[in-house]
Q: What sequence folds into this?
């Protein structure tokens, strides 16, 4: 088991906690349940603004400024119940936000990709602004046979490339899913790593190599 696994619990950043809280409050307010009927959007914003302060890369602005996708998804706390029409709209818009590699270089170094997958730090109030972020991939996915500590929120990615190959369609889908997960699954729990600038383009290349390079432990 990789020693960096101990860092994974820290991956839940202040921004993520506040974002989840904001999403839950907004969603229940729209549903107009008895307990939430008196809680409006302005009340929720004021509550967060009065309760927390920006520190490091975890800023109130990052939490309170939601784009169209986040606004729509906050209406559905149970993401399995997003109406098809709304989901298709979200996915269509998010697909326009994917930035594919201009130089057509899809794969980097799988060894570096494994470091990104293992690293669960970044964008927390205790981190330095501009520091290196991790992907924390093992928090949600099984990826290699050797790693015994992994989550199951997302599907297993073990033998990802071995099962799918490396056609252009697979390359584009995999890159797009990492860049902006909601382009393929509206209101996905998976972070929009590229769109939100969590991972650099080179880090995404390295994770792509981890998933698709035949020499990667993912495909053994």
A:
């Amino acid at each position: 088991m990789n020693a960096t696994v101990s860092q994974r619990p820290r991956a839940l950043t202040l921004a993520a906690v506040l974002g989840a809280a904001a999403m839950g409050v907004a969603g229940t307010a729209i549903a107009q349940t008895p307990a939430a009927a008196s809680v409006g959007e302005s009340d929720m914003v004021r509550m967060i603004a009065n309760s927390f302060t920006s520190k490091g890369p975890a800023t109130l602005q990052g939490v309170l400024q939601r784009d169209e996708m986040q606004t729509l998804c906050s209406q559905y706390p149970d993401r399995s119940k997003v109406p098809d029409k709304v989901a298709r709209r979200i996915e269509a818009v998010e697909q326009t936000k994917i930035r594919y590699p201009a130089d057509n270089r899809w794969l980097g170094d799988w060894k570096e990709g494994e470091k990104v997958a293992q690293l669960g730090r970044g964008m927390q109030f205790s981190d330095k602004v501009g520091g290196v972020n991790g992907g924390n991939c093992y928090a949600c996915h099984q990826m290699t046979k050797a790693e015994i500590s992994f989550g199951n929120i997302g599907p297993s990615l073990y033998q990802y490339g071995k099962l799918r190959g490396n056609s252009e369609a697979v390359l584009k889908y995999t890159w797009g899913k990492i860049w902006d997960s909601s382009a393929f699954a509206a209101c996905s729990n998976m972070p929009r790593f590229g769109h939100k600038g969590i991972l650099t383009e080179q880090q995404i290349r390295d994770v792509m190599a981890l998933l698709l390079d035949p020499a990667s432990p993912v495909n053994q």
In short: The chain has a mean pLDDT of 84. The chain has one domain: 46-219. The two ends are 17 Å apart (CA to CA). Residues 71 and 114 are 33 Å apart (CA to CA).
